[in-house]
Design a protein that fits this description.
Length: about 250
């Protein structure tokens, strides 16, 4: 095997630099060093949107070309991007990325309302669609919909008594009849770290993060009897983006 990583940078830059950096060493599988690419645009009061497609391959690249697509929307101009990725086998993927759920018209007759959308075209015909945090993805007569972009609410409590089954109580609870296991729940708070977790189970008004702890640390390192501080707390917001798929 000869692993490679090709970067398709679609934003004009004033400077590009390669550097070696230290990734977090508390993440399993991280090497001691990683190569980083630094892109810079220079000037006064510059606003930038860096759009990049990463192509991992073994010996032979599989991407023929990548180009940006025109988008029309009423959001911040730098908050929405769309690209077309043409593969060497003739397949074309259209990817749409929005910082927040946005109504977008994309070059080529694509309509989208959401955060992340993907369309696969074969000989100009839609073969597959995926949507994250969205309610509508449409190309011509082919339409993918979802009843809502995300399930949202507040945290009302937690239970960390079983280290193999950490639980967060939600208000409102996630609805029955929808499979949430394996999806990601994001908790909104002012903590400096990311508080997003894979859902390992749902029971009543509780979701489980399995063996991934919700404990941040001790209230007082000199007096353990005072208890813990937590990564999720009552009043925090929660968001579970909806997922939708279509294959033809």
């Amino acid at each position: 095997e000869e692993p490679h990583l090709r970067l398709h940078a679609l934003t004009p830059c004033d400077e590009v630099a390669l550097a070696s950096g230290d990734p977090p060493q508390n993440k399993p599988g991280n090497p001691r060093r990683l190569r980083y690419l630094l892109q810079s645009r220079l000037g006064e009061n510059v606003e930038s949107q860096f759009v990049t497609v990463l192509e991992p391959y073994d010996r032979t690249p599989f991407v023929k070309q990548v180009r940006r697509l025109r988008v029309e929307h009423n959001a911040d101009p730098n908050s929405v991007a769309a690209v077309a990725v043409e593969l060497v086998n003739g397949v074309t993927d259209i990817l749409i990325n929005c910082e927040t759920p946005t109504r977008v018209a994309v070059e080529g007759g694509v309509r989208f309302e959401g955060r992340i959308g993907w369309v696969r075209l074969v000989a100009g015909e839609v073969r597959a669609m995926r949507m994250v945090g969205g309610t509508l993805l449409q190309v011509g007569e082919v339409t993918l919909t979802a009843p809502l972009a995300a399930y949202e609410g507040k945290v009302k409590g937690g239970d960390t008594t079983d280290p193999r089954d950490n639980r967060v109580l939600l208000d409102p609870p996630l609805p029955p009849g929808v499979s949430f296991v394996g999806q990601t729940i994001h908790f909104e708070n002012d903590l400096p770290m990311d508080t997003s977790y894979h859902i390992t189970g749902v029971k009543g008004d509780a979701v489980s993060t399995g063996g991934i702890t919700l404990i941040r640390g001790f209230q007082d390192r000199k007096d353990y009897a005072k208890g813990y501080t937590y990564l999720t707390n009552p009043g925090d917001g929660y968001v579970v983006p909806s997922l939708a798929a279509l294959d033809r």
